Amino acid sequence: MSFSQYSATIPLLISGLKNLKGILAKAQQFADAKKVNPQTIVASRLAVDMLPLSKQVQIACDTAKGCGARLSDTDMPKFEDNETTLDELQLRIDRTLAFLDTLNPEGFEGSEDKAIVLAFPSVTLNFSGQDYVTQFVLPNFYFHLTTAYAILRHLGVELGKGDYLGRVGG
Amino acid sequence: MSFSQYSATIPLLISGLKNLKGILAKAQQFADAKKVNPQTIVASRLAVDMLPLSKQVQIACDTAKGCGARLSDTDMPKFEDNETTLDELQLRIDRTLAFLDTLNPEGFEGSEDKAIVLAFPSVTLNFSGQDYVTQFVLPNFYFHLTTAYAILRHLGVELGKGDYLGRVGG
Questions:
Q1: What is the count of structural domains for chain A?
Q2: Which end of chain A has less Cβ packing within 10 Å, N or C?
Q3: Do B125 and A168 touch (CB under 8 A)?
Q4: Which domain holds residue A86?
Q5: ipTM exceeding the 0.85 mark
């Protein structure tokens, strides 16, 4: 056995969020260079019925925050979804990272079998702690990270896979 | 400890690929309904310097296949990257799933510390077996899965998060 509930989630979420910060920094440079209103970038979508960049970042943060809080029985910090600039989205990520940094591996012990209930407006999902990690947290987190990346790539921001994966395999 | 090298990867990869099959099936229905040449769909991209749908599916498959083969010291089946239709991409996924089905958890034991070397044209990445899972396989797999989804969503294929996550939390 090589992964704990903690090691299978928190380090991955932290790396992903740090990479997302770098991606948003390149979006800011793009906005500056092109003299584009950054709010236009934050409101960009890939399809009219898909969520905009702001929401992709918010949900990536909330997936990470929710995972950390639920599996460790820690109070979940509440963030309002009111970011309209790239700077504000960076701050949202910083606040999420600061929360994840407060968590320690011991707090996650035994969370494999914990009942996790996610109530959405249209559906309620029931997971064991372990299934929550593999069936919800990881695919969902990377979904919103990648969609944020894809929105920016589609706009013309100069990004590559290295920005998404970060410095790995060194 | 709750995850082995096997359980942290293969079941997630299998679920993801099965969901991708469903997503491509909806793309086929869309092509049929709109009388669009499916080859146009397979060649679609989000940006001129991003990879097309075919390549996103091929890399998702290869990330899964490579993970299974490398961690279990199994010969890696070789697939030519010659798919030009949605049917052929479905077949690629089927062949990948068939390979993953041949692997058993015992074969992955001890792979945490195995040296994994990925040689790309521009860079060589060196991982431990465990870092390979968390820093490469999972983020990379979900990246290509999500990008395939995003390309199709952008074209107007009717897809929702449920198609990507699959039936979970039941």
A1: 1
A2: C
A3: yes
A4: 5-164
A5: yes
